[in-house]
Amino acid sequence: MSGLRGRAAILGIAELPAERKQTRPALFTLDQWAMLSKMVLDDAGVPASAVNGLVTHGIAESDMFAPATLAEYLGIALDYGERVDLGGATAAGMVWRAAAAVELGLCDAVLVVVPGSQIMPTPRQPRTPASPPWVGASSDKYGSPQAEFEIPYGNVGQNGPYAQIAQRYAHEYGYDPRATAKIAVDQRTNACAHPGAIFHGRPITVDDVLASPMIADPIRMLDVVMRVQGGAAVLIGGVDLTRRARNRPVWITGLGEHIAFKTPTYADNLLQTPIKRAADRAFEMAGVSRADIDIASIYDCYTITVLMTLEDAGFAPKGEGMRWVLEHDLTHAGDFPLNTAGGQLSFGQAGMAGGMHHVVDAARQIMGRAENAQVPRCDIGFVTGNGGIMSEQVALILRGE
Amino acid sequence: MSATPPKPLPEPTPVSRPYWDGLAEGVVRIQYSPSADQWVFYPRTLAPGTLADDLEWREISGAGTLYTYTAAERPVAPPWADAVHHLPAVVEWDEGPRVSTELIDVDPAEVRIGMRVEPVFCPEGDITMLRYRPMKEAP
Fold first, then answer.
1. B44 and B81 in a common domain
2. Count of domains for chain A
3. In this predicted complex, what is the ipTM?
4. pLDDT surpassing 70 at residue B1
5. 3-class DSSP state for residue A351?
6. CATH of the domain at A60
7. Partner-chain contact B98 A143, CB within 8 Å
8. pLDDT exceeds 90 at position A283
9. Less packed terminus of chain B by CB within 10 Å, N or C?
């Protein structure tokens, strides 16, 4: 089949340690972009002069023309510049687009950077926001379907809609809250082996999860990510640059993307998530099987997201994910290493950079740089991104050697 | 304690006006595409999937089954800070499409996915909201 030939690789990774209260100085997203770019270029051992591509999800300082603004600010002219708008799937979507641009020969090295700090310099006169912040990923603009048919009923934010999916899952397949809790517990174990994680040094038990406050039935507080300040980046380049770069190259060999809807109310099948099509394509393109995966880094805004991704990506039988999770050790030392830097549940969710956490997690393992959380003989990784309410998802296969 | 901001209300558009006018009259009126033999919600100018130019407005009973819901124990957003037993829900109409709504007049412990539900037309200012409660009699 057509697809990537595995001739573009992640050359460097960067991830700021998660902070609940930021100690780093307040920076505009333009400056965060520059800082993370420098970090990831230094990590790769590649000079800024080699870069001629970038991918962004947008910048807070400018509603439009983000690639050009960044090119100008960084002083890097671009042969390829793109903006990706896939919510939590953006980072994974950025990675394959950058890899495709390199394979097409459009550019040599692509900065793929996601600032993740809300702590920015504030103007003397605060600008009046167009929308209240709680509108979040919905749009309250006139003519928006969400403004007219969702928000007025309180179908807004993430907790309620994800809980609605979990309720429907429970209705069709049953629900064992100990299983979803175990996902959070195993990832917390991983965070305890990863110093950058916000919950490093704070292990939890299944009982802790089940005792945490109910947010939207059946989702409890410890089933949900917590916002942190941070940021993450990767540098992607072609074969020539991998010979000069410092790290073991992490080749992007498979991808799939599927965008199904915006609001779950309108899903054709709420319990078959878009990752199914995306993962099937990614595995076929890469020519590897589920059993070949050494490290999975699965987008985990909620534990139910992980559970349904494990099923729909083909690791656990459909409807049996709860039992499967209880039968497997998901820690870095276990039989199915998952979200080995804590995932967003235990590393923290640095805004849009949360999606890049999973790319960096898998790449760090394949580079052999995960230290106390290192998975032995880690060569093949599976990464997912998830945007909206499990409405748009991306799968990647990453490979060492 | 700071005042709870008002809940945002829908603002009908030229495309959706017949739907909201229907609710104000106490009926549920949605679109239908004869060429696709498909009911359509929310309102559009062309049929989703086929982009057929044959959407027409038809009245439906508004009855349906509860597809899913949650009991929000924490407010979904500041305007719902005072909403106790907020039950955001998705109802599947008998004709097929699903609609976002809220369940009312029901104890959260009594809610069951798959239960029959009936429309409740709730005037609020210039608009009539469509909420749902358990069906009181056999369909």
1. no
2. 1
3. 0.94
4. no
5. coil
6. 3.40.47.10
7. no
8. yes
9. N
What residues have CB less than 8 Å from A278, skipping those under 6 apart?
A255, A256, A257, A258, A384, A393, A394, A395
pLDDT confidence bin for A21, thresholds 50/70/90: very high
Contact criterion met (CB below 8 Å) for B12 and B23 = no
> In this complex, do A164 and B69 lie within 8 Å of one another by their Cβ atoms?
yes
> Would you say residue B34 lies in a domain?
yes
Q: Is A374 helix (H, G, I), strand (E, B) or coil?
A: coil
pLDDT of residue A126: 82
Which amino acid type is present at position A6?
G
Does residue A196 belong to any structural domain of this protein? no
**Residue B2, domain member (yes or no):** no
Q: What is the pLDDT of residue B89?
A: 98
Intra-chain end-to-end CA distance of chain B, in Å: 46
Tell me, yes or no, if A131 comes closer than 8 A to chain B by beta carbon.
Answer: no
Q: Contact A154/B102, CB-based, under 8 Å?
A: yes
Pick the residue of B9, B41, B70, B92 with the most A CBs within 10 A to test the interface with A by mutation: B70
Q: Is A369 on the interface with B (CB under 8 A)?
A: no
Q: Is the peptide bond before B42 cis (omega within 30 degrees of 0)?
A: yes
- The reported pTM is 0.97
Q: Is residue A179 part of a domain?
A: no
Find the domain containing B42 and state its range. Answer: 14-60
A211 within domain boundaries: no
- Residues of the domain holding A302: 8-120+224-399
We report the CATH number of the domain holding residue B109 as: 2.40.50.840
A197-223: average pLDDT = 98
Residue of B nearest to A131 (CA): B8
